[in-house]
Structures are given as C-alpha cells and as structure tokens.
Amino acid sequence: MKIILATQNKGKIRELQELLVDEEIEVLSLQDIKDWEDVEENGKTFADNASLKAKAAVKKTGLIALADDSGLEVDALDGAPGVYSARFAGEPKDDERNNNKLLQLLETVPDDQRQARFRCALVVATPKGEEFLTEGTVEGQILTQRRGTDGFGYDPLFFVPEYARTMAELTLAEKNKLSHRAQAFRKAIPILQALKIKG
User: Fold this and answer.
1) What pLDDT score does 106 carry?
2) Where is the binding site for Mg(2+), in residues?
C-alpha cells in the first residue's frame, strides 16, 4: 500500500518510514508530487489545519494521506501561540524572534505558572472521504532563558520535567520517543493497518 505524507520535512518523512518499516506500507511525500501548491493553513485548530493539508494531498494524488499540524500552547497566555506558533512574531517565520517574543510576554510570570505543552494533531484522510484524527502532547514548562543547541523552534525554552532537560538538550532518539508528533504517528499505525486490510 502506498500513502502520502503531506510534508517536505525530511525528518518527519524518515520518522514515519521508520515506524512503518514492518508494515509493507510505502511512504511518499510532497517531494514526490509535481506542481504541489502549498495549502493555506487558516484553520482555527491544529486538527483543522491538518485536515486541510491531508484532504488536499488526497485530491492531488488519490492516495490515503497523512498530515500533521503542531505547536506550543502556554497556559499563562491562554493557549497562545497555538496555531500561530511558527509565525508568532510575524512573517517571515523566525525561531529567534518567536522565542524572544515568548520570553518577553512571560517576563513577569513566576516559575510555577509557566506550564506549557507541545501539541500535535495528525489527520489520516482517504479517497473515500473518511477522516481519522490522532493527537499527541508533551507537557512541560517555559524557562526564562534558552538551554541546549539541538532541536528547533521553541525547544531551547521548553523544559521536560521527566528528563530534567529542555527539548534542545535531548538526543534525537530521546526526542523521537517522547515527542508529540511521534505519539500521534504511533497512534495512526493501527488506523493504517485497518485501511490496508480493507483495501
């Protein structure tokens, strides 16, 4: 069975391929599609945006498609930056400016009120119009200064209590094991297995 993962992110593609290595499921990506036009992610939730991308990939290829959307939710900011995580400080997207804005907004917030989570919504869409949603979350808190050099986005500010390190201080293997996206991908495997059996 062939499926399409609606991304050009090589890390995501590799992650899903590794999870499906024993499933006889071939993972294609947007890199394999000619004339792909990026979908405007104007949904109100991560699930909305994932659905928009997955349905567009089904329409373009006729294959079962997976798409994810994810970001950071900070309790003290009423769930912001949320769906605006990548462009929190405006366009063009810039991790450094996003992190600076986050630190600025949380400047007066005490340590015990800096809870946050990374959330991922993953949608599996089929040519028959079916949609399945899986989610993953990682709980943590936002530090007052960056730590670590691995990772990207808000990773240097996101402290994971169970590892006593930030996301940017974890090894790739550790991050892939606990990440919100890895959780959502793992939950999608039984859905793909069932679709494969159904044909």
Assistant:
1) 98
2) 40, 69
pLDDT score recorded for residue 78:
97
Cα dihedral 41, 47, 53, 59 sign: negative
69 flagged as catalytic: yes
Identify the three-state secondary structure at position 7: coil
> Quick one: residue 151, left, alpha or beta (phi over 0 = left, psi -120 to 50 = alpha)?
left
Q: Which residues are annotated as a binding site for substrate?
A: 7-12, 70, 152-155, 175, 180-181
* 38, 69, 75, 112: the active-site residue: 69
In the chain the domains, ranked by start, together with CATH numbers, are: 2-198 (3.90.950.10)
CB 167 within 8 A of CB 139: no
The pLDDT assigned to 42 comes to 92
Q: What is the pTM of this model?
A: 0.91
CA dihedral 47, 53, 59, 62 (to 10 degrees): -90
Q: Would you say residue 199 has pLDDT above 80?
A: no
**Rounded distance between C-alpha atoms, residue 137 and residue 122, angstroms:** 12
* 17 closest CA partner among 9, 26, 8, 4: 26
